[in-house]
Amino acid sequence: MPAVPKETAFDAPAKASTQTAAGLATLCWLLSAGVYIAAKAVTAEMPPWALCFWRVFIAGLILLPITRRHWPAMISLIRKRWFSLLIIGGLGLSITQGLIYMGLNYTTAINAGLIIALMPVMTMVLARFLLSEPVGGWQFIGSIIAFIGMAIIVTRGDLSALLRLDLNVGELCVVGAAIAFALYTVLLRRAKYGLPGLPLLVVLLAAGVVAAIPFYAWELIQNDRTALNMKGVLALIYTAGPGGALMYYLFNLSVQALGASRAGVFLYLQTVFVAVLAYFFLGEYLLPYHLVGAFFILVGVLVVMLLKPSRAGA
C-alpha cells in the first residue's frame, strides 16, 4: 500500500498528462492487487512476518539509491525524530502488512481486498478524533453503511455470528490491518516531517524493517521458518519489486499529476483487481455475501467521499 502523505509528492522528472497519470494509477493498483494473490499463494512456504520483513527490506534497498541527494536530510530527520518514525513507519509498513499476510492464512484474497477498501472511512473517523477534522451527518451515515458492509463480509452473510462471537480470525486480522493503516495515515498527516515523498517513503520503509524484526524473530524462535521453493522466491521477488518499489513509485507519480484526492480514488480498483486475479490464479469465487457487502461498502465510501462536510468554523 502506498505510504506517502497528501502534502508530499514523489520527486519525478516531469508531470505526466492526466491520461498517463490515470494509466499509472491503474497499473499501480493492479500491481498492489497482485501482492494479495502472491501472499495468499505462498502461505504454506513463507510465514507472514518473514514475507513482511523481506518485502519491505528489499523494496527499501531498491528505492534507496534514487534518494541519494536527500540522504543528509533523511539522516538528520532520523536522528531528530527516530521514535516517531519508528511508530508511524512500523504501523503503516510493518504491522499493516503483517496483519494482512496473517489474515490470508485464514481467509480468501477476495475478502481481504474488500475489507481493505474501508481504509478511507476508517481514516476519516480517526482524523475526526485525532486531528479534529470535521465530520458531517452524511459522513456519519456513510461510515455506518460501510461498516455494515464490512460486518457482512466478516460474518460471511450471517450477522447473528456477531452475537455468537463466531468470527473468522483471518477477516479480523485484515480489519486490524485496515485500522492500523488508517491510524498510520492520520499520524503521518500530523507529523509533518517536511521531506519529499520518495525520501520520506524510504525512511518509513527502514522504520518498517526495524519494527518487523521482533515479529520475524518470534517466527524463527517458534520454528516457523521459510521453505523457499521456486514459487516462494517468485512471490518474494514480485511483492518486493513490481508489487513493492515499483507500485510505490507509480502511485506517487500519479499523485503528482492528479493530486492526492483524485489519485486516491483509484484505490477502489484494487478490490476489483483482487477479485479478478483471485478467480484466475487462486480459483476463488465471488459469493452472494461478497456482493452484498461490497455494495454497502461502495455506497458508504461514496457518501463519505462525495458529500464532504462544510469546513466553516473548523
Question: Describe it for me?
Answer:
The protein is mainly α and about 325 residues long. It has one domain (about 20-130, about 170-285). Helix content is about 75%, strand content about 0%. It is built from 13 helices and no strands. Helix 4 runs parallel beside helix 8 and helix 6 (about 135-155) runs antiparallel to helix 13 (about 290-305). The longest helix is centred in the N-terminal third of the chain and has 33 residues, at about 70-105. It is globular, with a radius of gyration of 19 Å. Mean pLDDT is about 80; it is low at about 5-15.
Summed up, the helix count is 13
Count of spatially separate domains: 1
Helical content class: over 70%
Based on secondary structure, the structural category is mainly alpha
Measured on Cα atoms, how large is the radius of gyration? Answer: 19 Å
Biggest sheet: strands, sense, closure?
none
Indicate the low-confidence ranges by residue numbers.
5-15
- Report the portion of residues in β strands: under 5%
Mean pLDDT: 82
What order do the SSEs take from the amino end to the carboxyl end, as H and E?
HHHHHHHHHHHHH
Global shape? globular
Distance between the termini: 30 Å
